[in-house]
Amino acid sequence: MKTQTLSPDLRALLADPETQQSLATTSNPEVLQAPGGRSYPIVRGIPRLLPGHDEAQGQTQDCFAFKWEKTDTYDSPETKKMALDWYLKKYGFESAGAWTSFYDSRKYILDIGCGSGFSASLWLDSPLWKGKAMYVGTDISTAVDVGLQRLGHLPNVQFVQGDALRLPYGDGAFDTIFSEGVLHHTPSTAAAIAEGARVLAKGGQFHFYVYKKKAPLREFADDHVRDELANLSNEEAWEAMRALTELGKALAGLKQTLVLPRDIKVLGLKEGTFDLQRFFYNNIGKVFWNDTMTFEENVHINFDWYRPAYAHRQTPEQVSAWCAEANLDVQRMEVDDSGITVIATKR
Ligand SMILES: C[S@@+](CC[C@H](N)C(=O)[O-])C[C@H]1O[C@@H](n2cnc3c(N)ncnc32)[C@H](O)[C@@H]1O
């Protein structure tokens, strides 16, 4: 396993997640000391600045560590291309190159909930990334170790294990935050937005994506399946998601179109013509399937959705209100079937 060389620039940004006070080095190079007697380990060069958290957050942390260790099952060129096309559209960048160049023109970029760096790799793992900016991937789980293996060779790339609700950085430490599909996996999406805004400098940009609240039947099924998985091991939950993925595949295989002649208000459904599998997926139950991805990659998407205990869904109005409370001006909000993508600037 790779070991990170802790950059002095990152070392200067680190703070006690409990108090935001600065951390002292000790005679032991693998320990950071906080005022009040608390200390935090540095393991394989990665600072582990984790405060305590509740049981559901622990479960969420654990299932993502499990998922991101399956490194040979989420990175096919087809999946990356599909993700890249979607991200460029929702964040409003013209090309992968424009996205990379934008981030490399910043100074300090925090990736909240970086996981193994899958989403970040789409702009970071590029010849256009010169490391003029510093990228700091931060995740509550040991996925940061996987991130280091995958992206640690790139210039000015660092990882920290830390919690989005108590980020181990001082106020205004970053001029850019990227957080793809994370803030809703914490105990409170609103609190996670506020905590991100705390470590963002005035005028800094916060780019994030969170889940959107769906139609009532889909919401019901989401809660039901999540509860069903709660008492299973990660392996059993993965197997359960294989069965569900087969349903997605079977529905997609029908290649049927569904016509709703008018809105069905009581079910929150809009009139229109839909691909049957997409309609089921968006409105009845998330049974993801995409033909261009491998079977296990499809299982990843369903596991990622149903397995974490925390997976809040919110409305665009809620997200707007939480941004306003956190002193963030929303510059761009893209609402699609699955979620809400925001670019906001700190006042
Ligand atoms: C769906 S994954 C997204 C990973 C990455 N952003 C990407 O798009 O490739 C969600 C990630 O959020 C992390 N996460 C959940 N709760 C967190 C918290 N409180 N603080 C930091 N990371 C958290 C999980 O460990 C997981 O890696």
Structural write-up:
- There is one protein chain.
- The protein is α/β, with parallel strands linked by helices and 347 residues long.
- It folds into two domains: 8-212 and 313-346, Rossmann fold (3-Layer(aba) Sandwich), CATH 3.40.50; 216-306, no CATH class.
- Helices cover 39% and strands 21% of the residues.
- The chain has twelve helices and 13 strands.
- The chain has helices at residues 8-13, 55-68, 77-91, 96-104, 118-124, 143-151, 189-198, 216-230, 234-254, 276-283, 295-306, 316-325; strands at 24-25, 31-33, 39-43, 46-49, 108-112, 134-139, 157-162, 174-180, 200-211, 257-260, 272-275, 328-335, 339-346.
- The protein has an eleven-stranded mixed sheet, with helices on both faces. A two-stranded antiparallel ribbon has the order 10-11.
- A hairpin with a 5-residue loop joins β2 and β3 (39-43).
- α7 (189-198) runs parallel beside α12 and α9 (234-254) packs across α11.
- The relative contact order is 0.14.
- The site of S-adenosylmethionine (SAM) has 22 residues, from α2 and α5.
